[in-house]
Amino acid sequence: MQNEKQTFIIDIVKLQKALTQNINTSYKLFWAKSIIICHSEMKNIYLIDDIIHVMIIEAWTYVFDPRFVFPKQDHLPIIVNMIRELIPNIQKKSELKVFLETTDNKEVRAKMYDIKNIVPYRFLRGFLEEQLKELKPKNVDKTILELSKKSDEVLYKFCDRDNIYIDIYWHRYISYKKAGLIEYIDALIEKRLGQPLKYEEYIKR
Fold it and tell me: Which among 22, 101, 102, 161 would be 20 to 30 A from 3, CA to CA?
């Protein structure tokens, strides 16, 4: 992603920071990848719930692949395993998508709600780090919500608590670089999660 000729008014360095700094869990990476997957040239407003569904679908394969290890504080494997217990015979992504869109399971919905209330805000910290330096943790998410509305640099703004809006220049950039961005984020995910397992850990899985 470095040294690319830019034709749009966007700050690629801030996107790189959002994808590579303070990545203590996998949330930010799967969130970013899912935004790009959901991206369509025909629209620039996206339902946050739809993006979260894609996050879970994209994380599914990694959770059950012994080559990858999620951090202990990462809750994506928890929700994936929870769903696997509810529908153990699931075979296709389309089946998982239908389940996520229609489930009334309170525990699954609560986990998705937790993601919704954290990840969309925390991802934008890389774009707004200067403005957020002196803030106390409890004030950060609300401030990110407000700052995103005024900023021309963030990847997306919040229409409300349920929808995000991708700025026209970022929208064009994603259209232009979609395949490369997904490949780049996949490489970051594999680097973050691809830790060697000890024999005992491998057997447990």
Answer: 22
């993601």: which residue's tokens?
A: 115
DSSP string, 72-129: TT--HHHHHHHHHHHSTT---HHHHHHHHHH---HHHHHHHHHHHHHHHHHHGGGGSH
> Tens of pLDDT along 140-187?
778 888 888 888 889 999 998 899 999 889 999 999 999 999 999 999
Averaged over 13-20, what is the pLDDT?
88
Residue 205 has pLDDT above 70, yes or no: no
Alpha-helical segments (H) within the chain: 12-20, 27-38, 48-63, 76-86, 93-102, 106-123, 129-132, 137-150, 168-193, 199-204
- Where is average pLDDT lowest: 41-45, 101-105, 109-113, 176-180? 41-45
Cβ within 8 Å of residue 57, ≥6 positions away:
93, 96, 97, 100
Is residue 3's pLDDT more than 90? Answer: no
* Count of domains forming the chain: 1
Residues 16-50: b if buried by 16+ CB within 10 A, e if exposed: eebbeeebebbbbbbbbbbbbbbbeeeebebebee
Q: Which residue has the tokens 């769903």?
A: 83
Residue 48 resides in a domain: yes
Q: Which domain holds residue 126?
A: 12-201
Whether residue 93 lies inside any domain: the answer is yes
